[in-house]
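Try it yourself: sequence plus 4'-deoxy-4'-aminopyridoxal-5'-phosphate, in.
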Amino acid sequence: MSQVFGRHTKANLPVAVRGDGIYIFDSNGKSYLDGSGGAAVSCLGHSDVDVIQAIKSQLDSLDFAHTGFLTSEPAESLASKLIAHAPTGLERVYLVSGGSEAVEAALKLSRQYMLEIGQPERTRFIARRQSYHGNTLGALGTGGNLWRREPFDPVMVSASHIAPCYEYRDRADGESVEDYGQRVANELEEELLRVGPETVIGFLAEPVVGATSGAVPAVKGYFRRIREICDKYGVLLILDEVMCGMGRTGTLFACEQDDVRPDIVTIAKGLGAGYQPIGAMICSGEIYRAIENGTGFFQHGHTYMGHPIACAAANAVVTKLTDGGYSNQAATMGNYLNDALQAEFGQHPNVGDIRGRGMFRGLEFVADRDSKSPFDPNLKIASRLKAAAMDNGLICYPMNGTIDGVRGDHVLLAPPFICTNAQIDELVDKLSASLASIL
Ligand code: PMP
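Structure, out:
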């Protein structure tokens, strides 16, 4: 009996003992193809010698130095690498231990920024429905996942939510893709006017929505319009790339493909690639200088922030993603994955949509393709698919999207970028067999 208090109190989970490339092995010797990189974490697979060596070397020189007293070489080097590749205007990196911490830091920094520039009346955030920004109370409060929020609603920071950019579900018949993108982006302006733009700190969104919707990218032009609206009302644009960043979509930062300049970006998951827990919040020089010239310190912090071992691992990861060409590899292999998914499921009567970018792909399941009607939630398509896939030796990330009554179940695929064509074929075969066993 496991005494680890995990997510599922009743689950009897296999015990993972070894990782090798894109596979994880359990204590019975069974192998699992890591088709979702856990939850879009393991971008380099499970036995990368360079990252492992970087961790070992760092352990030999310095284990830990509290950031209240000292900075460290791996933290400085990681920050410079990230800034060298970050969208224009982003100039400072705040290093934390994961995605939720990165989002919390972004929320608090943006509130403090408003205080520093003399706008204390700005106290609220706007985000989108069907979004996920983390499980701590601030991040959960801004997120738009009703099921995750509901029990904690009375004790959370509250935010208001506009529609996501979800073309498959929401573009009207006869509406052009561009018009659709502008229409849903304009909801931000409508919401600002409803709540009073002078009360809003920032707008928070995932460039490619991950956990709640299964790799849904915004349509072309959407984020440019969002940026215009934020500028018009002095609202910060915070992009949450915890899941879709770090090469996952084929560019180091997902927002590069949306031609948008955020004020703050959050990253995690692929940054440590699973080798170490690490996240980061990257902010504009303008925000940083307002704090520097004002209070002089950011009123926030965690004991393990900027941890040297985690930073050393992330340094090795980011070097591989950039100089080592692994972000490009995600773009190339992502095209192969997309083609393989289209070939296998393009005509499937219960696959309504195949979407995503790079090595970040989603399939949405429907009871009927023409009406796009979702499966009855009582059929528990997502949890049965997860179980069937595990039986077949495949880790994938199915989710029940019907919580708000209109979305279908979906599965998120986020395999390591090091996959070969044959391994992608194996992933698709296993997914197909798993789906066939439950439908
Ligand atoms: N933001 C997004 C977009 C995420 O997908 C996640 C995790 N799925 C988080 C924040 C929270 O990250 P963590 O689980 O590392 O706290």
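One thing you can check immediately is this: The pocket of 4'-deoxy-4'-aminopyridoxal-5'-phosphate is lined by residues 39, 98-100, 103, 132-134, 206, 210-211, 240, 242-243, 268 (CB under 6 Å).
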